[in-house]
Structures are given as structure tokens and as C-alpha cells.
Automatic annotation (TrEMBL):
Membrane topology: Multi-pass membrane protein
PANTHER family: BLL4140 PROTEIN, SN-GLYCEROL-3-PHOSPHATE TRANSPORT SYSTEM PERMEASE PROTEIN UGPA
One GO term (biological process): transmembrane transport
Protein name: sn-glycerol-3-phosphate transport system permease protein UgpA
Organism expressing this protein natively: Pararhodobacter marinus
Parts of the chain that traverse the membrane: 12-31, 76-98, 110-130, 157-181, 202-228, 267-288
Length: 294
């Protein structure tokens, strides 16, 4: 089998083609990350007029702080719940829409619209629906004997932010799941149906294993989304409360740095958060990807 090699008229052309992407990576990722790493080793006043190099003392104080450890636990619960809910609901919608023939495009358009909503706007929408004074959801829950109050109950607040964050991500997951379902050969499903396999058995033994590459990709994307891109949802709904019940790591970085003025601790928290996401991504590609069938 012969392989074709691309040749360029100039030896500098490949470097010129790569230069824009490399420049963007350096400016918007490498440089901010290096600045955060440097600032995490400094102790600065809120006005940035005086700084002291303290090595890893900011990291030591963080891991000795019970509030920071609680924020890590809260982030783990929030990330797992948001990822599971967003992927489960989007997979259900994709399976239902994939069975439609005439109205598939119409339903697809309706389900994609929420992705255009900003995270802060999504948080405000769900905050209004769950508002204890004017929200329709607490009014309906009172009919079942449940007194909803996310301002006082930490569990209610966590449920609210998980629903709001997952709703924002469902459209993105839905598109990929629907594309994955449409790429599965119908002959395999028809053969299993002829052999007597029901809908549930066909889904778990044929459809879902063939969706494993899509599921793995979306799991990585959703974990990163839950840990980084949900700041707007938290800020618009609960602001980390009540009693830090929804104070995830990315929101604690904001509270300690921009509100509390502790810039060194905030930078250290951002470095730890970035390291956690990198480690989780490596673990997913190292161990979970082995069970993916390409």
C-alpha cells in the first residue's frame, strides 16, 4: 500500500500555516497559565501594590482549609450529577427523535435552541421557575407536600444548579448522540429484531455499545464543562449558598480572588483546578477509553 506525502513549495509554508494556532495557544492558554502559576506563589495585597514570594505556602494553606476541602467534595458531587443528568436526558431525547421520520428536523431545531442561551441567562430562567415567591415549581411541589426553599436548604440548592447546568448542556449532547444513532447501520438492528430481541435488549446490546466513542467524548466534554463553564449558572442562581452548599471550585476562585481580594490563594486554586481537570482527562483517556469500541 502506497502512502502519499504532502510536499510544500517552500520549507517555511508549514510553519506559517501552524503559526496562527500556535500563537493563539500561547496567548490565551500558555501565558495565562504561567501567570497563574507564578501568582500562586506570591502573597499580594488586594491592590497589587506589594507582593512577597512565599513558595508553596498558598497551596499548603488551601489543603489545610476545611472550606476548600468541602468545596472539592461539592464540586465532585455537582460534576457527576450534572454530567449524568445531561447525558442521560440528551440520550433519551436523541433516541426518541431518531425514531421520527417526518418531524425529526423540527424537533431537532427545538432541542438545539437552549444551547444558544448563555449560562447566566439559563441560571436566571431556572431561578425564576424555582423562586419561592413567584416560581411555578415550588407551587406545584407544595401540592405534593414538599416545601421547596433553595435559599435555606442546601440539597434544594444543589438540585437547582444541577438542573440548570444540565439543561444548558443537553442540546450539545443531543446533537452528537443523534448523529451517532444515525450512523449505526439499520441492518444490525433489523437482524437482532428478527432474532427476537426486544427494544430494550437491542439498545443495550447493539446500539449503546456502538455509541461508546460518542459517549466517551461527551463524558470528557461534560466533565470539563461542569468544572469550568458553570460559573455563570452558580452566580445567577445561588451565589455558592446557602452555607457554601453550592460553592464549587471555580466559584470559590472568584469569591476569594475578586471578592475577598486574596489573589495568591485564588491563583493557587485556579492552578489546582486546572491540574484536577488534566488528571481526570488523562484518567479517562488512559483507562475508560479501553472499553470504547471504535
Amino acid at each position: 500500500m502506497q502512502t502519499k506525502r504532502m510536499t510544500f513549495s517552500s520549507r517555511w509554508l508549514p510553519y506559517a500555516l501552524l503559526a496562527p494556532q500556535v500563537l493563539i495557544t500561547l496567548v490565551f492558554f500558555v501565558w495565562p497559565a504561567s501567570q497563574a502559576l507564578w501568582q500562586s506563589m506570591l502573597r499580594e495585597d488586594p491592590f497589587g501594590l506589594r507582593s512577597t514570594f512565599v513558595w508553596f505556602r498558598n497551596f499548603e494553606r488551601l489543603f489545610a482549609d476545611p472550606h476548600y476541602l468541602d468545596a472539592m467534595k461539592t464540586t465532585a458531587i455537582f460534576s457527576v450529577a450534572t454530567t449524568f443528568l445531561a447525558m442521560a436526558v440528551s440520550l433519551l431525547f436523541a433516541v426518541m427523535v431518531n425514531r421520527m421520520l417526518r418531524s425529526r428536523d423540527w424537533y431537532t431545531t427545538l432541542l438545539v435552541w437552549p444551547y444558544a442561551v448563555a449560562p447566566a441567562i439559563a441560571g436566571v430562567l431556572w431561578w425564576f421557575m424555582f423562586n419561592t415567591s413567584v416560581g411555578i415549581v415550588p407551587y406545584m411541589l407544595q401540592g405534593f407536600g414538599y416545601d421547596w426553599n433553595h435559599r435555606l436548604d442546601g440539597t434544594d440548592a444543589m438540585i437547582l444548579v444541577v438542573i440548570a447546568a444540565a439543561w444548558k448542556q443537553i442540546s450539545y449532547n443531543f446533537l452528537f448522540f443523534l448523529a451517532g444513532l444515525q450512523s449505526i447501520p439499520q441492518s444490525l438492528i433489523e437482524a437482532a429484531s428478527i432474532d427476537g430481541a426486544g427494544r430494550i435488549k437491542r439498545f443495550w446490546t447493539i446500539v449503546f455499545p456502538l455509541l461508546s466513542p460518542t459517549t466517551f467524548f461527551l463524558m470528557v466534554v461534560n466533565v470539563v464543562y461542569a468544572m469550568f463553564d458553570t460559573f455563570g449558572v452558580i452566580h445567577a442562581t445561588t451565589e455558592g449558598g446557602p452555607a457554601r452548599a453550592t460553592n464549587i471550585l471555580v466559584y470559590k476562585v472568584f469569591r476569594d480572588g475578586f471578592v475577598g481580594g486574596n489573589l495568591g490563594s485564588s491563583a493557587a486554586q485556579s492552578v489546582i483546578l486546572m491540574a484536577i481537570v488534566i488528571v481526570l482527562t488523562v484518567i479517562q483517556f488512559r483507562w475508560i477509553e479501553r472499553r470504547v469500541n471504535y
